[in-house]
Amino acid sequence: TTQGFRLLESTPPLSLKEVPASGVMGRAFREGRPVYVPDVGKEPGYIPAPGLKTLAELALPLEERGEVVAVLNLERNRPFPPEEVEGLFRFAQAVSLQLSRLADLEERRLIAELSERLQSAATLEEAGAEALALLLGSLGLPSGTLWEARGGRMEALAYQGVEEPSLLQVLKEGLPYGVGLAWQVYETQRPVFTARYAEERRVVPALKAMGWRTFAALPVLSPGAPRSRRVLVLGQKEERLWRKAEVELLLLFSRTLGLGLERLTEKHRHQAVNGLFLNLLQRPPEDLYQPLLEEAIRQVPGAEAGSLLVLEEDAYRFKAAVGYDLEGLQAIRFTPGAMLLWYGHPLERALLGEPRTMSVEERSIVEISHQTAPEEVIDQVGRAREIQANLCLPIPYKGEVLAYLNLDNLHDPNAFGEDSLEAARFFATPLATLLHESRTRKLLEEAALTDPLTGLANRRAFDRFFQEELKRAERYGYPLSLAVLDLKGFKQVNDRLGHAVGDLALIQVAKALGRERRNGDRLFRWGGDEFAALFPHTPKQGAIAAAFRYAQAIQDLCFEGLCLGVNIGVATYPEDGTSPDALLSAADTRMYEAKARGQVVAA
């Protein structure tokens, strides 16, 4: 022990339970060689045994795999002859050899039984419980936990021998980032063996308060992974020195456990992907965006949050999110160029579906985020300043990137490694299939929401998107502007030049508006010569400026000497109204005011 020697056996029986390490036995233990004292009366360090008359003492160290683990101590009231000392020394060597052999046998037995139990386990939790029960029984330890790093918390996969309510609460809640030996081992990838837990840098307050002293914490390595995501922790309240054979056994045990857990992880990953394919046959594709993202976060090492952006109408939009406000994110749209800037590699690599990782230690995630999205929005609902590491997986299909899957860690800059990239690739095929199916259905739906002549969204689409954008503006407190456009001169073009030229004029108007459209703006043709536009995150002055640009683009359109014009009415939430009807009424009224006064824009 840390204080001395625990008495295992004695003849005759002694009342002692421990012997201090300061005597002859302690010297033999420290020096690793026999110590013979022919006259204990002349030995200042001699510790007398109660009730025994002793003249000579012989302390013989016993080794296990080259480490002194015990001392065979002999005392009697006459000296030991040299030949007897030599014989007893050889006896101690034979005992040491047998101890090493027994340690080897126990190690082989334990590893063989562990492998057998892991083969029959159906889940990671079951495998962890079996491993702990086996190991604790072999080492005579009361408790242990198998931890797994999942984003910003260590979660208990399995535990044994924990009964105290405060510790059970720790297991239920998990370890916050950086708390406890498990996080220390995760960060350093080095095992920790201690009998003085209170002096360690990282402690769990509940364990320290209860006086727990002895712990072993080891990384459970997975083949091919740059770092271990799981940590095996064993402990007891009493102090205990870790023998070399125990350390070697624990290291081998954790490596074997890692192999078994990796097999189960791969199995579950395949099952999860197969389950997604089966669900695709039974549910609308859009219903699977969120479950698929959640499964990716569960399966990809290092992920704790994420989002899925899908290509729609030449822009990428958020369709699922974990750890973020999806409704707020849906107000943001990204051009293909902006997404490539975020991805950080050429389009050719994105079309190969190659995932990439990014860490705040290498690049400024905040700066890149601000280059691709409105700063105030991406900081608030996208938590851009909190992201420490990102894994981005492009989803290509037939020469086009249909989506980008983003997985984030908000605590650890080094959260993602090669094992994360390998796991992320599992989701490329189901996502591509899902998105292709979704796109096919979307085309049918868009046909009902699209003006067939101009290709712009129709009045039905306007009603839907206006409601959605207004709800977001109300929730997050940003302005939303609306413009109603009524063409001038269109009736003359249509009446004098015919319906074919009239149709061409409407098509050219739609194209002109599209060229002036800012990222995030939405354009609609209501019918006849009426158009509308929505400007999210845009105050009135910004909407007026956009309206004048639209007007100029329309005024440049002429057909056989007949030129078009436009009257535009602008309304802004919240100053002009807080309901769709109020805002529409305000914009419509101002459009008629502009027409009556001969103005282009009225706001």
TrEMBL record:
The GO terms this record gives for MF are: diguanylate cyclase activity
Residue ranges annotated for the GGDEF domain, each copy included: 478-603
- What's the protein here called? Diguanylate cyclase
Q: Which InterPro entries does the UniProt entry name for this protein?
A: Diguanylate_Cyclase (IPR050469), GAF (IPR003018), GAF-like_dom_sf (IPR029016), GGDEF_dom (IPR000160), Nucleotide_cyclase (IPR029787), Rev_trsase/Diguanyl_cyclase (IPR043128)
Give the superkingdom in one word: Bacteria
A Gene Ontology BP annotation from the UniProt entry:
negative regulation of bacterial-type flagellum-dependent cell motility
PROSITE patterns from the xrefs?
GGDEF (PS50887)
Q: Name one GO cellular component term.
A: plasma membrane
| Source organism of the structure | Thermus tengchongensis
Gene3D superfamilies per the UniProt record, alphabetical: 3.30.450.40, 3.30.70.270
